[in-house]
Amino acid sequence: MRPGPRNLITDVPGLRVGHATDEAAGTGVTTILTDSAWVGAVDVRGGGPGVRETDTLAPENLVPGVHAVVLSGGSVFGLAAADGVVARLSVRGVGLKLAPEGKALPIVPSAILFDLAGEGDKDWGEMPPYRALGLASVDAAEEDFALGSVGAGRGARAGQVKGGIGSVSLDLGEGLMVGALAAVNPVGSVFMPDGKTFWAWPFEIDGEYGGAAPDGIPLAHDPMPAEGRLTRPRAGTNTTLVVVATNAALDKGEAKRVAMMAQDGIARAVRPAHTPFDGDIVFAIAGDAVALPADAGRQREILRIGSAAADCVARAIARGVFHAR
């Protein structure tokens, strides 16, 4: 198994990613755009999530797909980034239309991370920058994009070190692709007890996050690693935000299963994960380019996609911290 040509989530055909970064405020927004209404699902495991439009994605609900997913810094203020994305896409005619001549209604779920205690001027009064950053992130969307301290990862922290945006892909053959993008801001540690080896080291491909391997087998008996930012944890101040994508034609229930399986990638790469202080969330989005079998082999393919998604999440988390540092 190899990554796609970019080793980014945009190796899944039909996706573009745009960052908008406010260096003065030390924050930003990252938007994943789809080329049509893609099937979407979400799985929330953290104790302090900040979200928008997640109930829309429930398998029992009507709306069939999404037009973008927005990840933002800024805590609750960052939810306004999706307003900018919705406005920009609507004027471009992207979205659901309830009548032939009606206004386009983009479906744009989003999630936020807390970066308000970091560097930068957050004294924005009644004019937080996030709507404008959302607008700009759509304009910046490309298949190639930067990793590290950009967009939603600009003010992120991963334990005691800088967090950031990470992304990877995995080619499963016969045209089937899986990718992941993570905005990494957990309370836990991404490093093993040696302080240099990523927990995700067994999943690394071609030295994509430095190639460090443990000397011997470092034991991990302490459930609260010293490298984690655990001295003064506060509810809702940390999170790992993830989008996983595939070009397999999934329904909403199947996408939900992929999102649930992909959460294991957070647990493989961050310790501890899914804490009361994190807002860990995984969005799963699926195009329709690759048809899956209709017989019992379909569930085997979903198993393979979900397992690949979990590995990609672990790799994306480590890669985000590697590039941010």
User: Which homologous superfamily in CATH is the superfamily?
Assistant: L-amino peptidase D-ALA esterase/amidase
Based on DSSP secondary structure assignment, what is the total number of beta strands? Answer: 11
Share in helix? 10-25%
Label the CATH architecture: 4-Layer Sandwich
**SSE order, as H and E?**
EEEEHEHEEEEEHEH
Mean pLDDT, rounded to whole units?
Answer: 93
- Describe the sheet with the most strands: 9 strands, mixed
Poorly predicted runs: none
CATH topology: L-amino peptidase D-ALA esterase/amidase
Q: What's the tally of helices? A: 4
What is the CATH C-level name? Alpha Beta
Strand content: 15-25%
Q: What is the SS-derived class? A: alpha+beta
Distance between the termini: 27 Å
**Gyration radius, in Å:** 18 Å
Overall outline: globular
How many structural domains does the protein architecture include? 1
Family: Belongs to the peptidase S58 family.
Pfam families: Peptidase_S58
GO molecular function: aminopeptidase activity
InterPro entries: ArgJ-like_dom_sf (IPR016117), Peptidase_S58_DmpA (IPR005321)
